[in-house]
Amino acid sequence: MIIRPDLFDSVVIGYPVLDMLRFDKLYIGRAWVPEYGDPENPEHREYLAKYSPYHIIRPGSRYPPIYLSTPVLTMIEFIQPTPLSFTLGSKSMAIPAI
Questions:
Q1: Backbone φ, ψ for residue 78 (5° rounding)
Q2: pTM summary value
Q3: What is the CA 45 to chain-centroid distance, rounded?
Q4: What is the pLDDT of residues 6-41, one digit of tens each?
Q5: Closest by CA position to 63, among listed 92, 28, 42
Q6: How many CB atoms lie within 10 A of CB 63?
Q7: Is-contact 69 39, C-beta < 8 A?
């Protein structure tokens, strides 16, 4: 959705991992390192930065409407999608907030 927004009319994202450079700091994030890579490893970090949704948002780009869904069992689950939703929903971005 961030890399090719032209492919989508709208997007629903449930339980997202959006900050690939800091996911390992949240709740059970360290358990995901074998799957995603280790952001502390420079080689892994370089690769993760290329597709981390939060880090590749292009200001001024037109993104489809997005609905982010996450459990609010703890603040940690809520924190992961919050920066992306605020960035995409800001007045500087061309995206409607749902």
A1: -75, -35
A2: 0.68
A3: 15
A4: 999 998 888 788 889 999 988 788 999 999 999 999
A5: 92
A6: 19
A7: no
